[in-house]
């Protein structure tokens, strides 16, 4: 960044209106930045200044007591004010020596005008200069940001963005990918770069352990300031970009670093999308596996090569993730493919993080995942899968347009890839029962009696069983518009607790008692006997299955 973007006390003194000004003390602080000019004629100003202001005064607030003047200077210096400019004449003929000494002690610029000046002219002139400088800053930032975006469309997008960041800020740039070698722009001597990279990596590990997510990070390194910004998307950080500055960072530095990391993230995201699309193309055979179109393991070996033995020995779960088709512009019929690949980009690293090897394919608006457990202990697979899906749902919900629902069904674990079709069917059945359980992640082994009912393929038999057990209630509800069937289910599901059932149904106890009496009248007074109760609970589940 050009130095013109930073206005210092020395710069202000070069303005024509300061031709008669004289620096009495604190010349060592003339490089202090000036963000604004403020006229101050009161002694109690602690809440009136923010820091980096040039203060103009006639001295009226401390004219009568040199000690007040000394305190005035010391408090301004403590609040990081840029300098103090005093107009001599009307209230103060000379600056007390004690004030000059205090200013010199703190290297706080103390400037005087020997005669009367128009403060309004000074503020107008300097404020116009500051505003124009900010405007130039924004114009330069917009130009560089457009160039960043253009560079991401080149084959070496990230590298080119880093080079432009260096030339635009005149700072040392370090690129730290989460996997791979760090790169310095420009390249540093090997030892010097190694020390800097080790410092950055150690600092990032510490900050991540502290769960500090206020970016950019500020680090001090060998009397220099380092600002670090992450580059990533989909809830993952893929790299860090660091700028090493010999000066204090300015607003321009923060903005241009943010723009650069955003462009790098877009470049990395596009490359990962292409890689994911390639993996999908290479794994089209997974659909044949799930639909039992592969006859034997020899066919599997021809697709998987040397990985077959290792993966075939692991236990697997087939997971189905149902998603909404993408609303982004895409070729006709490709909406689900786009959304599916986007989702698999998020899911793949999550599975790897929890020791699963994923084989992923896309079927309409469903992502099909064969999650093979590579954990050494091979225990707690279900818990780890739940953690994966919790993270997936959280990441999906936090995306700007990620409000669409995700429903997840998981089959039982099996060993051997040829058993994947069984787990696949179980995952489908788990998804089918979402309306019964209203859980976003449903494992087949949590379905209870539904696991048995799914294997009764004769729907006529199921309907006859439901009719024999629940027929009077179904008929009553249809004719009278009642809710006896739902009342019975809630009542039985909560261990026949009248208090809990009334709360869940949002009715008063008296209404519940009336409904239970009606149920007893229709089903018989012994409907709560062990055998009858069990039959009713199975019939209720069968009724749900028939009506999903």
From TrEMBL:
Domain Purine catabolism PurC-like residue range list: 11-130
PucR C-terminal helix-turn-helix domain sequence ranges: 484-542
Residue ranges crossing the lipid bilayer per the database entry: none
Gene3D superfamilies per record: PucR C-terminal helix-turn-helix domain
Domain CdaR GGDEF-like: 316-431
Top-level taxonomic group: Bacteria
Coiled-coil regions listed: none
UniProt cross-references to Pfam families, sorted A to Z: GGDEF_2, HTH_30, PucR
PANTHER family with a match to the protein in the record: CARBOHYDRATE DIACID REGULATOR, DNA-BINDING TRANSCRIPTIONAL ACTIVATOR ADER
Family: Belongs to the CdaR family.
Name used for this protein in its record: PucR family transcriptional regulator
Lineage: Bacteria, Bacillati, Bacillota, Bacilli, Bacillales
């Amino acid at each position: 960044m050009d130095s013109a973007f930073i206005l210092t006390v020395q710069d202000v003194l070069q303005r024509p209106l300061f031709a008669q000004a004289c620096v009495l003390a604190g010349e060592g602080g003339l490089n202090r930045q000036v963000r604004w000019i403020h006229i101050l004629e009161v002694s109690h100003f602690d809440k009136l200044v923010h820091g980096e202001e040039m203060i103009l005064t006639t001295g009226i607030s401390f004219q009568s007591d040199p000690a007040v003047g000394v305190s005035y200077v010391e408090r301004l210096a403590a609040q990081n004010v840029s300098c103090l400019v005093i107009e001599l004449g009307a209230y103060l003929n000379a600056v007390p020596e004690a004030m000059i000494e205090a200013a010199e002690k703190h290297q706080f610029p103390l400037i005087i005008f020997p005669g009367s000046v128009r403060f309004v002219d000074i503020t107008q002139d300097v404020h116009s200069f500051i505003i124009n400088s900010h405007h130039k800053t924004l114009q330069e930032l917009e130009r560089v940001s457009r160039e960043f975006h253009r560079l991401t469309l080149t084959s070496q997008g990230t590298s080119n963005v880093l080079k432009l960041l260096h030339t635009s800020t005149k700072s040392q740039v370090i690129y730290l990918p989460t996997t791979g070698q760090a790169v310095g722009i420009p390249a540093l001597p090997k030892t010097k770069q190694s020390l800097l990279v080790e410092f950055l990596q150690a600092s990032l590990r510490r900050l991540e352990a502290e769960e500090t997510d206020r970016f950019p990070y500020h680090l001090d390194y060998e009397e220099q300031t380092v600002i670090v910004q992450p580059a990533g998307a989909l809830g993952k950080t893929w790299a860090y970009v660091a700028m090493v500055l010999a000066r204090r960072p300015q607003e321009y530095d923060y903005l241009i670093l943010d723009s650069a990391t955003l462009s790098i993230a877009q470049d990395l995201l596009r490359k990962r999308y292409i890689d994911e699309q390639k993996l999908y193309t290479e794994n089209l055979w997974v659909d044949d596996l799930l639909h039992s179109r592969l006859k034997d393991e020899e066919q599997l070996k021809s697709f998987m090569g040397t990985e077959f033995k290792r993966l075939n020995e692991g236990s697997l779960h087939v997971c189905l993730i149902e998603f909404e088709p993408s609303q982004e512009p895409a070729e006709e019929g490709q909406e689900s493919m786009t959304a599916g690949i986007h989702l698999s980009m998020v899911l793949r690293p999550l599975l790897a993080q929890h020791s699963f090897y994923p084989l992923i394919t896309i079927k309409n608006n469903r992502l099909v995942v064969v999650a093979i457990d590579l954990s050494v202990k091979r225990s707690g697979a279900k818990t780890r899968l739940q953690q994966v899906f919790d993270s997936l749902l959280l990441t999906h919900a936090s995306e700007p347009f990620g409000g669409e629902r995700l429903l997840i069904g998981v089959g039982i674990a099996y060993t051997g890839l040829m058993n994947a079709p069984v787990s696949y069917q179980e995952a489908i059945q788990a998804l089918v029962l979402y309306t019964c359980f209203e859980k976003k992640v449903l494992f087949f082994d949590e379905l209870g009696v539904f696991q048995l009912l799914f294997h009764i393929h004769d729907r006529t038999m199921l309907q006859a069983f439901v009719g024999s057990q629940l027929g009077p209630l179904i008929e009553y509800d249809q004719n009278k518009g009642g809710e006896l069937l739902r009342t019975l289910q809630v009542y039985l599901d909560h261990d026949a607790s009248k208090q809990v059932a009334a709360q869940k149904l949002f009715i008063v106890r008296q209404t519940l008692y009336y409904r239970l009496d009606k149920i007893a009248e229709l089903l018989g007074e012994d409907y709560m006997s062990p055998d009858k109760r069990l039959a009713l609970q199975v019939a209720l589940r069968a009724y749900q299955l028939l009506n999903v």
